[in-house]
Amino acid sequence: TKQVYSFGPDGTEGRSDMRELLGGKGANLAEMASLGLPVPPGFTISTAVCAHHTETGGYPEGLTDEVREALAKVESRVGARFGDPKNPLLVSVRSGAPASMPGMMDTVLNLGLNDETVRGLADKAQDERFAYDSYRRFIQMFGDVVLGIDHSRFEEALELYKEEHGYNLDTELTADDWKALIEQFKQIVEDETGEPFPQDPEQQLWKAINAVFGSWMNQRAVTYRRLHNIPQNWGTAVNVQAMVFGNMGDDCATGVAFTRDPSTGDNEFYGEFLPNAQGEDVVAGIRTPQPLTTHAKQKNDSDLPALEETMPSVYRQLHDVRQKLESHYRDMQDIEFTVQRGTLYMLQTRTGKRTARAALTIAVDMVKDGIITESEAVERVSPASLDQLLHPTLDPEAEREVIARGLPASPGAAAGVAVFTADRAEELSQAGTDVILCRTETSPEDIHGMHAAKGIVTARGGMTSHAAVVARGMGRPCVAGAGQLRIDEQQRRMIVDGVTVKEGDTITIDGAAGEVIRGKVPTVKPELSGEFATFMGWADRLRELGVRTNAETPQDARTAVEFGAQGIGLCRTEHMFFESDRITAVREMILAESEEGRRGPLARIEPMQRQDFVDLFRIMAGFPVTIRLLDPPLHEFLPREDADMHEVAQAAGMTVDQVRARALKLTEANPMLGHRGCRLGITYPEIYEMQVRAIFNAAADVAEETGETVEPEIMIPLVAVAKELEILRGLVDRVASEVMKDRGTRIAYKVGTMIELPRAAMLADAIAKHADFFSFGTNDLTQTAFGISRDDAASFMPTYQSQGILSTDPFISLDQDGVGKLVEMGAREGRRSNPALSLGICGEHGGDPDSIGFCQGTELEYVSCSPYRVPIARLAAAQAAI
Ligand code: ADP
Ligand code: MG
Ligand code: MG
């Protein structure tokens, strides 16, 4: 089979769709050459050769002949010969894998130079300085990349030489200076390798090819691939290409450009160049690069002349290339170019990396210009990246004094005064102060404080810790597990590396970077209108899945509606029970020994609960609202602090000791599998009765007030046995009809269950007989299918992932193989026994793009996710439908 593919002005064998075989660089060099763009001729040795080389250390048969032939073609196209002392061809040897791995593998320029050919080059270019400058660069790069000599050895020698001769810039060195340095460089090579610098170009070439193939397996590259999910067996290609020179004088240059601005997406040519320079000089930051356009020059108030001014005709050519590449690739390109004595050469093009904002702007502009379709635009923006656009972010221009780092648990930025307890957070925020809640870790009791806070910091915990999950759910920025922080709740302060932050001191957190910063860093607000709205409108037209939100507070509900939620898919009523105005009544109810004892406090809670629902129904008017009846183990509500015990004792007319004893009795060994969910409804029906009454009265209230109908969907949690649902459905229907009769109105409603236990999925057909809907509660379903507690997974999950036992965290992305089977079974069996059954998913997975793809495949009707995930889910659902 063919192993070497030529490219150049007359005859190109590769194409851009051959990137697997030719690597991205090789495939696009071929494509550009075919488009008639000025690409220096060369050839690509395929990735298949790399695989062979990695396995055997050698090369497949016939490779040397193919390389020799391809090289001969380059020689005749350029009109120079490799190794010819009078008229030498020089080449670059460049790596290029199928997936871009920036800075991971290496390139050698000016290969083919030796003590003889350098003189030929000098004569040919009529520029001795240029030739020796190129030769010393070659020895440096070859020494570093191929011979493994630390590049600082060469740099130090160069610096020392400059110092001794009173030079500041490399450009000040003369041909004789470079000659002297070349002698030193060759000595360094001999000292380091025990052999003289290789003079035979043929040998140089193969050593370089070897080194590039070898670099595929270097530690850096292997790690990079693991982190970015690039298969280890792909291999890199090697590109050998005739050199063009940007360092032959002031009519030469080298540069990089983006066909549009990669940070804003503006349709402006954006780039930098250096006159009289070669290759990596622009990126290396040796000299300050100059802008391409006069527009950019003015915008950035730069003193340096633009390419447009200094080389207008080259600029015009480059501008044409920009047009050609964009209309051909139909996407923003990132290009490399070199100008040799006034002639432009193209050395690379690839799809340019961009910020989320730029991705959106470019996609929308390209649709407006008729370059791509709406559905192509929708496919081009990564759903997860939208997150960057939804939260305020730190002003990138501002300075930041980072005092601690943790995990980027929930994106966005926030500033406020540090507080160390949830209560204090609530107090200060009610007084109008922005606060950042800093805890060693958080628990469900901190919810009110997390809500009150602008941002959350924890010293312990991972990406799926309570703080992280709740913060993401609430759209609060969060830095989790900032291990250097010592939080002293008693003294109201925290200490980091000797710095003390007291309550009231202002800090800023960057949840996307995982940084805790001293003082207030200014933020910039997100922009949800304009392009964002246009783009999301396209996504909405394409998607089939509905998108609802998980919300229980008016604020979350409002945010979600702004973000495009079509109803509430999960309202967790227990969060309402933690509110400060009723927690005592809730505790009193739980601690009561009898139904009688519970009825009193329940009666006090009912109007508050009713008001909660009135608020939600108003905001969600016209949309369905799924309300889950009380779910968590009662012990979660128990008083722990002495002060709380006293308060409850007083309210309930008990002694503190009685309260303590009763609390002890309610303590469970395994609360997650304990007295919770529908089991509460079965044993204490008066709780569910109160909730259902509150819901239907609220629905009647809002219908009377606004004339808008709401659609309550009552969800019974943790059903494992059909009988449980049968009984509780009976309860709901009975209370609902009582209220409706009482209020003289009809309210359309549904009763359904959360499928969150494996048994429920397996017996979905029986359960569906009593249900109008199923909502897959994939958080608990994952916990119960794996037998892993989400709250305790952090201690072993990282090991499981690094050993490849689990490729992703199943609490973040649905385990489609296992848990997914249960979902499929539940959906199929449920529909079979009850064709009218409606199906959705709630839980963290409802906002995860991969999991949403799975939901589309399983033909669910909707996903429900936290408010800040709603736009992500809308886009992911559209992509899943395309
Ligand atoms: P990377 O993938 O790190 O960008 P490249 O192979 O693209 O590495 O090359 C590094 C630098 O050398 C780039 O600036 C590129 O434009 C330049 N370069 C590569 N080949 C040539 C060549 N044949 N002539 C002139 N410059 C070249
Ligand atoms: Mg490059
Ligand atoms: Mg559950």
Automatic annotation (TrEMBL):
Positions contributing to Mg(2+) binding: E756, D780
Pinpoint the Pyruvate phosphate dikinase AMP/ATP-binding domain residues. Answer: 63-300, 316-366
Q: Which Pfam families match?
A: PEP-utilizers (PF00391), PEP-utilizers_C (PF02896), PPDK_N (PF01326)
Give the keywords, sorted: ATP-binding, Kinase, Magnesium, Metal-binding, Nucleotide-binding, Pyruvate, Transferase
Molecular function (Gene Ontology), one example: metal ion binding
Spell out the PROSITE patterns in the cross-references. PEP_ENZYMES_2, PEP_ENZYMES_PHOS_SITE
Write down the top EC class of this protein.
Answer: transferase
Q: Which residues form the active site?
A: H466 (tele-phosphohistidine intermediate), C842 (proton donor)
The record's Gene3D superfamilies line, in alphabetical order, gives: 1.20.80.30, ATP-grasp fold, A domain, ATP-grasp fold, B domain, Phosphoenolpyruvate-binding domains, Phosphohistidine domain, Pyruvate Phosphate Dikinase, domain 2
Q: Which cofactor does it need?
A: Mg(2+)
Entry EC no(s):
2.7.9.1
The PEP-utilising enzyme C-terminal domain covers 529-880
| Residue ranges constituting the PEP-utilising enzyme mobile domain according to the UniProt record | 434-514
Q: Report the InterPro entries cross-referenced here.
A: ATP_grasp_subdomain_1, PEP-util_enz_mobile_dom, PEP_util_AS, PEP_util_C, PEP_util_CS, Phosphohistidine_dom_sf, PPDK_AMP/ATP-bd, Pyruvate_phosphate_dikinase
From the UniProt record, list the reaction(s) this protein catalyses. Answer: pyruvate + phosphate + ATP = phosphoenolpyruvate + AMP + diphosphate + H(+)
Annotated family: Belongs to the PEP-utilizing enzyme family.
Functionally, this protein is described as follows: Catalyzes the reversible phosphorylation of pyruvate and phosphate.
Matching NCBIfam families:
PRK05878.1 (NF004531), pyru_phos_dikin (TIGR01828)
By what name is this protein known? Pyruvate, phosphate dikinase
